[in-house]
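User: My collaborator sent over this chain with a note saying "see what the structure looks like." That's all I know about it. Can you take a look?
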Amino acid sequence: MKWLDPKTGQQRSKWFGKGEDGSAAQKAAIEFDNELKALRQLGKQLPTSGNPKGISMRELAEAYVGHHRTSGKNTKWLRDWISVLDNHIIPLLNDTPVNKLEYSDMVRIMDHYGKRRVSSVTINRYLSYLKAMFRFGIKLQIIENNPLEHWQKRKELPKKSLLTLVDLRKIQQHSPDHLSWAIEVAFNLVVRVGRSELTAITWDRVDWSKKGVWVFMPKTNREKFVPCTDAFMVKLAERESKARSRHIVEYRGKPIGCIRVGWNLAVKRANIPYHTTPYDIRHLAITELLTRGVDPGAVADIAGHANPFFTITRYHHVREGAKRQAIDQLPSL
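Assistant: Without extra context I'll predict from the sequence alone. Here is the result:
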């Protein structure tokens, strides 16, 4: 709710939280609106702050998520973000109102995760979400302060993956049929393994005439087309003829939410001696393409990277081997 402070000419606001008709939030908003009307009629000064304690991080997050949901955007990552806030970030801030937060509070968050050896990628993601949320609050005049206004992302080291093609095949051999198929789809389509891409692909995204699959990537809000080998297209046709749902990857006629648990069990059964995650499937696919001398621009398109430069720099260790193979082709003088 917003109102104009007649003394300063500034717009004030108060956030009551999200609520349906008849909810406590709606009743509180109506009650506060009636108080403002009464004060105007009596000629008394209107409040300079809608909430003496200030809007909390949780309230700001609810407004942020609600805004994205009504905009028709994918909100799965936002639900996960709320969970991260509740379980990890808000406890570190002692429920301090957003307007009273300072950059030193943000540094405390970074130090907390840094000491626990959380990757720079994860820390950057958390802080980026916070920064976007603060900007949203300022734009809607819910808050007045952005403690991350001048924050810059930490340098992210390239992710190291030990997974090899031989070991991936071992993991497949120790996987149930639906997991083995999920691994094969992820590898051939070079997709992010999770709800956003792999398990979201439906049969109507297969382009049989072009021999490939269209994949929407919520992370970049773009779509990519991945051409497939004749052998994989045959497997797709076989799977579709037996499919019990509209999803390419399914289990007993229902889409799969996550393969991490099944993956970890298969890794254990296959006696893989190092830590590996489902993400490594995508990493391995990109590595294999680059190792085989595929043009980095084409690899970037297949991977869904916005810029080939990202592919080249992120997988520079692979290209070092390719350069050695190339230089060996030079004739001697």
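A starting point for your reply to your collaborator: DSSP finds 13 helices and seven strands in the chain.
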